[in-house]
Amino acid sequence: MKCFRKDNIKYSVIKEYKNGKSGTSHLISDGINKFILKCFERKEFSYIKFDELLNQEINAFNKLKEIGVSIPELLEFNKERNYLIKQFIDGKVATELVAENKLDEMIISQLFEIVKIVNNNYFNIDYFPSNFVWTGEKLFYIDYEVQPYAEEWNFENWGIYYWLNSEGFAKY
């Protein structure tokens, strides 16, 4: 995909990110602003049907916004073409911060605030550091994934390992 066209506006693809569980995300630009375009793809999932992927992300966005988690704005979606466009958060991906051993008290404090909010609402999110962006002032959860709470997938039992293992992440 070299460009994406919508409403006679041509968006250039600046970067393609790694394939996620439900599709591929692209950093796109209209020449002035940057956005994230997520295109949903048919993949084999035992726990979710392709036709439900977009709805599930829209519902997750609404839940996360409602409970106060810092997330990028959902700007639009198209169910016929299976994509969504969300706000681009300009900052450093937490995987880089972990690998470079640059997590500071402010980042950790905001991460634990997100964990507290999510736990208090009986959800889990994907705590893998690549789903977080640090702007220098604020930590954003950039994925629209919410799952019912399960202790084995909470931050303490799953996510914390990836946030506190700088040596392992540097190798990653």
Structural write-up:
The protein has helices at 53-67, 94-99, 105-120, 155-164, 166-171; strands at residues 3-6, 9-19, 23-29, 34-40, 74-78, 83-87, 92-93, 123-124, 132-134, 139-141, 147-148. With 172 residues, it is an alpha+beta fold. Strands 1-2-3-4-6-5 form a six-stranded antiparallel beta sheet, covered by helices on one side. The chain has a three-stranded antiparallel beta sheet with strand order 7-9-10. The longest helix has 16 residues, at 105-120. The two termini are 27 Å apart. 27% of the residues are buried. The model has no long low-confidence stretch (mean pLDDT 87).
Number of strands: 11
Radius of gyration: 16 Å
Distance between the termini: 27 Å
Count, helices: 5
Order of helices and strands: EEEEHEEEHHEEEEHH
Structural class: alpha+beta
Tell me which oligomeric state these chains represent: single chain
Task: Pick out the low-confidence regions.
Answer: none
The strand order across the widest sheet is 1-2-3-4-6-5
Secondary-structure topology with pairs:
Layout: E1 3-6, E2 9-19, E3 23-29, E4 34-40, H1 53-67, E5 74-78, E6 83-87, E7 92-93, H2 94-99, H3 105-120, E8 123-124, E9 132-134, E10 139-141, E11 147-148, H4 155-164, H5 166-171
Antiparallel strand pairs: 1-2, 2-3, 3-4, 4-6, 5-6, 7-9, 8-11, 9-10
Describe this structure in a few short sentences.
The protein contains 5 helices and 11 strands. The chain has 172 residues and is α+β, with helices and mostly antiparallel strands. The protein has a 6-stranded antiparallel sheet with strand order 1-2-3-4-6-5, with helices on one face. A 3-stranded antiparallel sheet has the order 7-9-10.
